[in-house]
Permease (Pseudobdellovibrio exovorus JSS), 358 residues
Amino acid sequence: MDSQARYKITRILFISFVFVLFGLMFMPFAGALLLASLCAFALHDYLGYITARGIKRKYATLILTLGVLFFVAAPVIFIVLRAVTIIKNYSAQGFRDTPIYQSTEKLLHDVTAYGSALAERIGFDTSKIPHPVDLLGKYSGEIGSYATSLLASIPELALNLFVFFLALYYFLNEAQTVKSYFMRLNILSQREANNIIRIIKTSSHLTFVVSILIGILQASIVAGVAYFAGFSEFFIIFIVTAVFSLIPVLGSAPTALFLMLTAFVQGNTGGAIAMLVASVVAGSVDNLIKPVILNSAGEDQIHPILSLLSLIGAILMYGFIGLLLGPIITQLALSLLPAIVSSSSDEEKSGEIEAIQS
């Protein structure tokens, strides 16, 4: 091996070693950094609207970042912590004594009795099937334990949130610098890079802005109506509905329908009707508004089954943040390949035209 080859190998190994060490420093915050980068793509156009009014980029970035913190993150964090605290208090005093547990237990008992009677008519033996009421008692205690562990992890969550907003400010303020760095690597052509950036911006915007805002709106409708229908667990209902709203196929309907059945079992006919109306209104928000936004953005709706499977896989792979990463990665994967193939075909055609003209 000559000296030139040894130099190249040593150079590659040294650079790789440095970058590996550099990357390892950020591994504890990988989830927060990834979310921040995608959120920066989603908010990039809003930053352009602010800077177009003569505000310097660094101040516009600060305004946008603080806006996300105080008007989106802070209320959601407050609701989550409030819900977790309520669950912990329920666990301390005993879930069985809470109104929501007793209503759920009565609902499950009535449904099980009806199902057992139906199974007996067709000759189906249900004795070996676990009783839903027993499962409710078993897993209600685990919910309290999870709430306690979540409260114990608040310092770690706060650190990740701090890293997220620092990274969000950096990615928004230094977007052009980051883009120029990657363009100098000559991995992609200018056209391919612009196509990929456009796809990531659209996918991120649909998830971080559209889906989350629709989820918050649906959760507000269901939790608000539920509160006036006699359910005092506003914060818990809000969180459960918001999470369900991010799941394709299901949406916010399960929470509203469950509360409707619970109110009906309690003899609260007015509350049951109110929850049915809330279910229809909340569902129409997702079924009417979201398709309009997708069509205006020029994006095709992903098949619900594919969306659901990819979301389940993302949650298993990335944890809770998979709720946000799953839709973005799926949309990106389905849009990226056609864009690159189309770009390559256009470049080949332009090359052939230039060859003919020459």
